[in-house]
Amino acid sequence: xxxxxxxxxxxxxxxxxxxxxxxxxxxxxxxxxxxxxxxxxxxxxxxxxxxxxxxxxxxxxxxxxxxxxxxxxxxxxxxxxxxxxxxxxxxxxxxxxxxxxxxxxxxxxxxxxxxxxxxxxxxxxxxxxxxxxxxxxxxxxxxxxxxxxxxxxxxxxxxxxxxxxxxxxxxxxxxxxxxxxxxxxxxxxxxxxxxxxxxxxxxxxxxxxxxxxxxxxxxxxxxxxxxxxxx
Length: 231
Fold this sequence. Notes:
Blueprint (H helix, E strand, L loop, with lengths): L15 H44 L9 H48 L3 H11 L11 H14 L23 H15 L7 E3 L5 E3 L6 H7 L7
Antiparallel strand pairs: 1-2
Helix pairs in contact: 1-2, 2-3, 4-5
């Protein structure tokens, strides 16, 4: 009734462990799909080889005995259908995992915003780096893209010193686990908690606007003093 704008705050710890569980589930589905597709490819190759050998036997006027090639082809075909069904099943599970991860990412972004009081500009930039729309492709998956984005933030706008801005070659490939990604996300959240911002405009006397990576607040200075973080 006093005309003050509505303020939303979140004071509980961020549920990052639940977020990481969703990431693990999604990555596991991706790895299973890759393994099943590889096995399906091998089985398809075997089936084509058997098929060619049988065709050669049937073309000969005096064909040699089949030596159970027909039985082997039948078993290979059954295995081919079985693997195809497995691939289809994993694809469905991956789609569900991607949808769950997308919803969880949107939720965690909202909690980060209210936990650290991010304005629209900072929130939009953080959302762009977290890629809440989970769309996997054969070349790159969500985990690789987001981990590369977190590393980029930590080496640019969220870097605490010049040493951390050193350019390091990073391969973008499917990880075996999410250990590094978890660490990078946790560090990003920690630096946001200590006052760092992705975008912090300061207008000088000439009206020009500059971007500042870290806010030199007393809290940020006190908490970052002596901290050593390995990326």
